[in-house]
Amino acid sequence: MAVTYTSKYHAPEDPGGIIGEILNMGAEFTGPARDALLGWTLRLGDTQDPAEAARAVLVKYGLEKGSDPEGACGELVRLLRETAGYSQARLETHMCRPESAHRNRRRGGRKARHSG
Length: 116
Known about the structure:
Elements (H helix, E strand, L loop, with lengths): L17 H8 L7 H12 L5 H11 L10 H14 L3 H7 L3 H7 L5 H5 L2
Helix pairs in contact: 2-4, 3-4
């Protein structure tokens, strides 16, 4: 089933025009900004890097620099800027690796404390 977006803001970096529509709303957008960011991220799918898409959205709407809009719209811009700073390489350096998780477990877990 094909998805058709009708927003004039629809673009590969802004599927469905979620960010564009919110920015157009301005102060009328009451949030929550985190939910909007999550919805945008989920629409990107697994083929687009969220950091690259966030950078493209910020440039597209002229928000890469300057002051933030007011209210929840401004919070969304701040979240996009934060997302833009996390490249795939940066995320990979912070991911838990199974071997490090194994080394960080508490020694003498539940069984060891209760045996006896």
